[in-house]
Amino acid sequence: MGEVDHIIVGSGINALVCASILAGKGEKVLLLERNDDIGGCIRSEEITVPGFVHDVMATTFVLFITSPAFEELGPDLARHGLAFCNSAKPTGVLCPDGRHVVLSTDRAANIAAFNEHSPGAGDRHGQVVGDIEKNAGLLFGLLGGRIWSFATARLLAREAWARGPRGLAAFLGEAVTPARGWLETDYSDETLQALWAPWCLHAGLDPEEAFSGQISKVIAFALEAAGAPIVKGGAGTFLKAFQGLIEERGGAIRTGCDVETVIIDGGRATGVRLAGGETIDAAKSVICSVAPGQLHQRLLGENTQEEQQESVRRFRHGKGNFQIHYALDCPPQWAGEGLDDVALLHLTPGLDGVSKACNEAVRGMLPQVPTICVGQPHALDPSRCPDGKAILWVQLPEAPRFIKGDAAGKLDVPKDGQWNEALREAFADRVDAILSAHIHNFKKTVLARRAYSPADLEKMNINLVGGDPYGGSSSLDQSFLWRPFKGSTNHETSVKNLFHIGASTHPGAGLGGGSGFLLGKKL
After folding, report:
1. What residues contact 308, with CB distance under 8 A and at least 6 apart?
2. In which region does residue 432 sit, left (phi positive, over 0), alpha (psi from -120 to 50) or beta (all else)?
3. What is the pTM of this model?
4. pLDDT, tens digit (0-9, with 9 covering 90-100), for 401-460
5. DSSP per-residue letters across 269-293
6. How far apart are CA 208 and CA 267, in angstroms?
7. Which ranges constitute the DSSP H helices of 80-118?
8. Cβ neighbour number for residue 405 with a 10 Å cutoff
9. Side-chain-facing half-sphere of 188: CA atoms under 13 Å
10. DSSP one-letter code for 349
């Protein structure tokens, strides 16, 4: 493509957004992906039975359709075939004894249903999501804006003037409340606590961690407002739309290109060297959408400063994920009514159950009763499988990266602490047993099952260290102005013209494309 202005290493959602933004301004962009296909954690394949299209990893795009990136790129992506399928019931919870509750996309209906379930709970829900709505400018300015910027400084100054310094401090203090503190304060009903308790896991947090309450409230607001959409035809359609848009705007994408080194000349990033020896020059910037270890230990190597080496050593990755995909002979017959068309249904004993499973996974134990998130893509998008059949997308967000034992004391753990095929299938059997307790004749309806351990996920994507899909622990000390490192400044690095984006950088994990959008607009 001639002279390249920007080289982007990696092809996850942030890389795709950044490439689209830059190419849209006439910049010559080259995106390089080491795998055979683009997408990072976004991919869809027929991994069980022919005709059953599964989103292998990421599946729910609520953060994208509510993002500035979608606002700007959405109409053009639609021209390239991107469309979403949604449900009026984005989420729900089903407890072991059959208690269940469902959230709809109708706030008034939710308030009425929750009040009927537990007097006053609906009114409290309305106040919680209403407060998020009322404080949206401040919340989303901090969650999605460039932290080190005059815009953020002006935002905080304006809020301090409007609320008073003490009022702003009180708001920020409330924002760091753990999910347990919020749920036990606002809801006396354990089922409603159970509805929201697992959602902080999808932001890489545990219910006892600071800020997990606030992010759970934000998710509650987003799910009610926008649902839990999936891509029509499978997540692969999302990638085809982005590729079409990038190429339409003059950008180029090369797969099967393993970048070995970022070339530094005179303290500036000037290009990259591929594993085969080929060098590619970049006139303006090199942008890496990778995990911190990949950037500073592999791509920069001896060019990494001592301070960054120490920061990488201190950087913590979070728990691993465990994924299971089922092809079913018929839609699941749930024990509870009204669950057939819930987009994402959590199976959990409740707040204490989520906390217990998290603690076990953090200590290297296989959870005795894991928190199970069940997606039902067939209910939103019937094109995903043959008529009358069904698909389950199952995610367990509490899986140990290094295994020390089994909390149930039943599974044999390898002496080296590593996941292997036998343990993966045995742990998937544990999930089967829980699903069988909630779905009538479940095992008889299973046509095929495909499980992925944290080790399998890392094998598919080297940035998922230990199967961590969130780019590193999202605890408060590794978020906002401290992400990825304590000395980080937005998406800059110690090397001029070298930038870092992706889940490991602010605004963190999720399918919002935030870091790619912020850097693309900045450049």
Report:
1. 296, 300, 485, 493, 494
2. alpha
3. 0.96
4. 999 999 999 999 999 999 999 999 999 999 999 999 999 999 999 999 999 999 999 999
5. EEEEEETTS-EEE-SSEEEEES-HH
6. 43
7. 107-117
8. 15
9. 6
10. S
